[in-house]
Amino acid sequence: MSSEPHNTFGTIGAYRLLTRLGKGGMGEVFRAYDQRLKRDVAIKRIRAERSFDQSARSRFRREAQAVARLSHPSIVPIFDVLDTEEGDCIVMEYVEGQSLAAFMEAGPIPVRTAVQIAGAIASGLGHAHDKGLIHRDLKPENVMLTKAPDGFGSTHQAKILDFGLARALASRPVEDLEAPLTEPGAVIGTVHAMSPEQAMGEEVDHRTDLFSLGALLYEMLTATSAFRGKNWIDTLNRVIHEDPAALDAQALGIPEELAELTMSLMAKKSAERPPSAGRVAAQLRKIDLRLAAESGGFQSLQTPAVGGSAGAAKDAPSTVAAAQVRTLVLVQLLDAARIAVSADTGGSNVLSRHDRDARNLATQLRGFEVEHADGFLAIFERPIDGVHFAIEYHRLVSELGDEIEE
Questions:
Q1: Which among 126, 134, 136, 201 has a CA at the least distance from the CA of 169?
Q2: Cβ(281)–Cβ(261) under 8 Å?
Q3: 3-class SS at 330?
Q4: Per mean pLDDT, which range of 13-17, 117-121, 273-277, 291-295 is the poorest?
Q5: Cα separation of 59 and 358, whole Å?
Q6: Cα 291 to Cα 283: distance, rounded to the nearest angstrom
Q7: 191 vs 238: CA distance, rounded Å
């Protein structure tokens, strides 16, 4: 709990402003103190000179509406929204740490760290996309790094900032969002971080964020921007027409699979990119575990004996200090065949939803699916995540069962 501060820059409602953290084209960000809940927060406010700009205010409120729907460890949550004489304000979690941009100033990021950061970002994006929202301005400056809450390999927790450019996906409408803020042909975002379709002012979907993620991952691995040119016109031309230099996996000391994934994310045609952020997160998780195994980060995994719906696998390490537990959870729809052939209940749709939701749930809990002939098998680095998955999966199946009965 934060001790109550004394030196301030004024107050906004119940929040005492402490320091100004940053200032951008749309607003400014303060570190503040919540006098009611006795905690530090971050407050983003449209600058006084922009407060009359209705477009800026609408975009600002859209950010609050969008992020308020999201609950994910890789997304900075919103606590409050204020409408004051000084302008609209969003109160959000104060994240102690540094931006990914600052972290990369020292040069290329170690491969496994880059994979873990990208995987966390992909997981957060997948959650947002499932809620019908896209970010549209994913870049190193909009990712904060803080210390990871556990000691299982990852040393940094990535948190996505600034959904100020987020908008409802055309195919996944959100009822209480207003009409899109941008007209066809408008370009919104940071030039070197946007997709070709976004740069040309075309309609975009969730795959625009995947392109930006690929550019971000490329920069983490090489310490070089994939598309930044001499000026913004040169940069736009590169984004739209030129491919970045191919990643030399051997020279960079990275897995070939990682190099291929990074380049595929930056495909000019959105249809040629991976289908979803959740799928990317799962692939990065597999790469991370493979890198950990190669470096001796943990013992090789063993499949549990058949005979239960869930089990734990643990190797016999040479020392107690080397012991690490990975949890395997196997789930199975016993009546899957009957459901699939039941036209009256829309069984095939139910099974498709089951598979999709189970994968998304596993990804959100830092797990990933491994191939298994008899059901859905997910692996989790922390046993508690496996437990949470089992609880949420039970709720998921119960809801699907209710739909079938209806």
A1: 134
A2: no
A3: strand
A4: 291-295
A5: 33
A6: 12
A7: 10
Neighbours of 17 (CB within 10 A): 17
Beta bridge mates, 147? 156
Considering only residues 1 and 379, tell me which one the structure prediction assigns the higher pLDDT.
Answer: 379
- The two three-digit tokens of residue 78, written as one number: 């919103």
What tokens appear for 340 in the block? 């699939």
Catalytic residues: 137
Residue 252 sits at φ, ψ, to 5 deg, of: -85, -15
C-alpha dihedral sign at 353, 356, 362, 363:
negative
Copy the structure tokens of residue 97. Answer: 């740490």
DSSP one-letter string for 303-363: PPPSSSSEEEE----SSGGG---EEEEEE--TTHHHHHT-GGGTHHHHHHHHHHHHHHHHH
Tell me the C-alpha distance between 317 and 245, whole Å: 43
Question: Is 151 a residue whose pLDDT tops 50?
Answer: no
Which residue type is seen at 370? V
pLDDT attached to residue 257? 94
Q: 372: exposed, middle or buried (C-beta count within 10 Å: 0-12, 13-18, 19+)?
A: middle
The residue assigned the tokens 């994310």 is 265
**Cβ atoms of residues 363 and 314 within 8 Å:** no
pLDDT in tens, 294-331: 775 543 333 333 333 333 333 433 333 333 455 666 66
d(CA 382, CA 377): 15
pLDDT of 315-374, one tens digit each?
A: 433 333 333 455 666 666 555 444 444 545 455 666 677 777 777 777 777 776 665 555
